[in-house]
Amino acid sequence: MSQSAAEQVDRLVAAVTAIDGVVGLYPGGAGAPATHLPGRTIRGVRLGREGGQIQVVLELRERLIDLADHVRDVASDVAGVPVDVVVGDVALQDSAPAQ
Question: Residue 29 is part of which domain span?
Answer without folding.
Answer: 5-46+63-91
